[in-house]
Amino acid sequence: MSPSPAGTADDRYAHVEAAIGVVEASGLHYEVGALGTTFEGDPTAVWATLRAAHEAVLSSGADGLITNIRLGQRSADDTSMDGLTAKFRT
């Protein structure tokens, strides 16, 4: 998830931090990156968190918002975001 809010002249990250706060409170496993936040979990919880994070940015006072979402799901696979990236971590 990578929200790109408009109307952030005073504090470039205030609205993005509102979205991250929702993800933190969700209980989902997540990682904040320089260009977006990755999280994983039950599909119903993921969808609810995506919507809540998007709405949190608007509620925090952003003039507008475009949220870029990339979703991946596998039916019979236990691959995790940590499993996909572990070999690249130092």
UniProtKB/TrEMBL annotation:
InterPro entries linked: MTH1187/YkoF-like, Thiamine_BP, UPF0045_domain
GO CC annotation, single: cytosol
UniProt similarity note: Belongs to the UPF0045 family.
Protein name: Thiamine-binding protein domain-containing protein
Residue stretches making up the Thiamine-binding protein domain: 4-86
Pfam families: Thiamine_BP
